[in-house]
Amino acid sequence: MPKPQSVDPEVSRAKFDREIGRFRPYADVYRAQGCFLIEATFPRAFFIFASPKLKPRVVSAASEVDFTDYDLRPPSVVFVDPFTRDPIARKDLYLKMLRRPPLPGTPPEMIGALIQQNAVPLTDFIQANSPEDEPFLCMAGVREYHDNPAHSGDPWLLHRGSGEGCLAFILDKIIKYGIVPIEQLQIQLQPTIVGMVVSPQAIQE
Q1: What local confidence, expressed as pLDDT, does residue 199 receive?
Q2: Is 196 within a domain?
């Protein structure tokens, strides 16, 4: 259901057009990083993301960025099915946006080893109340973050005008923390017994 628009629609539309207009000259740069603008019709822009490192090519995620009431309110970012554009559950979104704390002076190879040993705490920008619930981008500048009661002490107006919440900010964060780290697909095979093999030579007359 479309969200109600309380700000003058022409004001939000002009700012939406400005954000899309800033994106288009760099569309090739974004595409090389795995970010594709599929459709932009006020108030929503539809993007798909794919890791340039993966072969075969796989759609890693899709999202709609909704600029209703922008920028009195920050944009909404909803992860959706790339074919139907319906919101999806967290269990159906394989993308993670992991962030580690700074480790000054630590060699990159040691950082990787520490992460593999679970010795470095990681946070995921993509959160959900349960695997069955819709995931949301838990990041300042995103509507779902500021609407969450847990972040009532960090209102949008403290960030408005800082660059957080603009389209480039949101896309760059999804690319940096979600798409760039992806290097390969993780495949889990679960053998299932479907019967017993009979040797033709062992069949009796």
Answers
A1: 54
A2: no
